[in-house]
Amino acid sequence: MDEKKATAARANRGARGNKKGVKARKIAVEILTRIDVSGAYANLALDHALDKSDMEARDRAFTTALVLGVLRQREAIDQELRALASQPLEKIRPPVLNLLRVAIFQLNEMSDIPESAVLDTAGDIARLVGHEGIVKFVTGILRAYLRNPHKAGKADLEREEENSLKLARQYSMPHWLVVRWLNAYGESETLSLLKHCQVAPALTLRVNSLAIETEAMAAILLKKGIKTRVSELVPTCLIVESRGKDRPKLEEFPGFAEGIFTVQDEAAAFVSQVVQAAPGETIIDLCAAPGGKTMNMAEHMEGKGRIIAVDIHDSRLKLLRETRQRLGLRNIETRQADGRFFKFEGGADRVLVDAPCSGTGVIAKRSDLRLNRLESDLEKLTRLQTALLNNAAKLVRPGGLLVYSTCSIEKEEGPQIVAQFLAEHRDFQLEDLSDAFPPDLVDKWNLAEEAHSGQVMFLPSRQAPQGFYIARLRKSADLPETLHEQEPGGDII
Fold first, then answer.
1. Measuring CA to CA, how many Å separate 16 from each of 12, 25, 58?
2. Parallel, antiparallel, or unpaired for β 455-458 and 468-475?
3. Most distant pair of Cα atoms in the chain: their distance
């Protein structure tokens, strides 16, 4: 059994063959349906549903494995279902369709579950979501699948001559994205990226350096059975390798309530290392919420100075303010404003634009992006990114720093955006960012040329577990400072 199947099997132990197991599967179906019907983010939908449930840790893990597994393999599963169902999938009620997806995922990936148990459980859940006709429909399709598994989708793949379609279906990825990756990175790299997207990333904790040292935090977690390792990229990040036999929820980790750590991916935390915020400075985070990078920069500033966290959505700023309170960081102000038009008098020492993007570098974590991201979104996103950068240029004082980042590996959202910006803003130039890396890591990851150039593209198939683009730009100190009026109605909280 490979590692992916072994993980799923471990998650399933203790859940199958009992009422709790049925409940876990039913909740998985409900979460998947919510994602389909309302376009909910997978991670938020999962967190919301699990927080409301009274399931034990094993059942919560099982539900999570089902939801994320189905999202990663949905296109391949749907290929199977199209050949088995007597009607188009679009005609099947979303709860019923997602019940079928969950069952086929179990049959494909959780080999320690008896086939009869999968069918029985699917029938039980079908009764909860419909009438006996639904039960017969669901069990009929599953029995047909068991008689001739994996044939329908594979036959189509074999008949398909275009390699990109084969890969898209095999890895349940949007065809347009596979084509883009093949053109940008070649077949070998694309295959590595696709395989990477099938594996859920480990939970990463960023330790609050104002409260505790990384090694001390790791020791505290280990006493509770939570095994971690220190990130190569960000010394304050701990990657969770095992939660122990009790598998506590994040909120139950020692130190969470006290603000000793927060959750943040390595590449996202690295952005703050590139910014290099210092005590006493004025920093603007132009697309701040939910605030991970804001908090990190505030910690680098040792609580001294001023961070202005800007976001267009007050609901997201609310999350930022809650995290700020939990971590005890007092030098963060929040402003609800559109980053394209936000104004600030006097100029900031450093401005961060962590721009909204396609998210193609974090699909392994955000499986819902496979479903709701379109190629046409790129044009709208690049216009937004350009407008944010252009306004950010006005907010940086002469001699100050501008950092631009996205969790995308599409060149239009990274190097091309920055090249266009530099052509239109002659008072900015890229600045070597190799000093943001721990010693020797630039060479180890073969990033010396990129880092010295002032911009880095992380590919999750090569380096960090997330795809990310980061550029550091310095504004000339020779130009007179331009003053800008305060944003009207900008509310300081």
1. 6, 9, 11
2. antiparallel
3. 77
- 337: tokens are 């404003």
pLDDT on residue 50:
82
Structure tokens, 209 = 């350096």
Domain shared by 296 and 414, yes or no: yes
Q: What is the distance between the alpha carbons of residues 197 and 168, in angstroms, rounded to a whole number?
A: 12
Mean pLDDT by 10 residues, the chain (493 residues): 45 44 85 82 78 81 85 83 85 88 86 79 82 84 79 47 79 90 89 89 92 95 94 95 87 91 93 95 95 94 93 92 90 95 94 96 87 88 96 96 96 94 94 94 90 92 82 84 38 27
Answer whether the bond into residue 235 is a cis peptide, omega within 30°: no
Same-domain check for residues 293 and 412? yes
Nearest to 437 by CA among 445, 426, 429: 445
At residue 265, the 3 state secondary structure works out as: coil
Give domain status of residue 190, yes or no. no
- Amino acid of residue 343: K
- Residue range of the domain that includes 85: 3-159
Q: Is 427 helix (H, G, I), strand (E, B) or coil?
A: coil
Q: From start to end of 161-230, where are the E strands?
A: 204-207, 227-230
335-366 core/surface letters (b: 16 or more CB in 10 A; e: else):
bbbebbebebeebbbbbbbbbbbbbbbbbbbb
* Beta carbons of 305 and 332 less than 8 angstroms apart: no
What is the pLDDT, as a whole number, of residue 463? 66
Contact 274, 297 (CB under 8 A): no
Q: Are 450 and 456 in contact (CB under 8 A)?
A: yes
Look at residues 243, 263, 283 and tell me which one is the last residue of a structural domain. Answer: 263
List Cβ neighbours of 85 (8 Å cut-off, separation of 6 or more): 92, 141
Q: Are 467 and 362 in contact (CB under 8 A)?
A: yes
The Cα 292–Cα 286 span in angstroms is 13
Is 334 domain-assigned?
yes
| pTM of the complete model beyond 0.85 | no
Q: How many CB atoms lie within 10 A of CB 78?
A: 19
Contact 110, 13 (CB under 8 A): no
CA 466 – CA 459 distance, rounded (Å): 7
pLDDT of residue 320: 94
Cβ of 479: how many Cβ atoms within 10 Å? 12
The neighbour count for residue 51, using CB atoms within 10 Å, is 10
| Residue 211 and residue 333 in one domain | no
Residues with Cβ within 8 Å of 392's Cβ and at least 6 positions away in sequence, in order, are 284, 286, 339, 351, 353, 402, 404
Active site residues: 407
Residue 165: both structure tokens together = 């379609």
394 and 313 share a domain?
Answer: yes
Which residue, 190, 84, 188, 205, is CA-closest to 146? Answer: 84
H-assigned helices in 340-395? 369-372, 377-395
State the total domains in the chain. 3
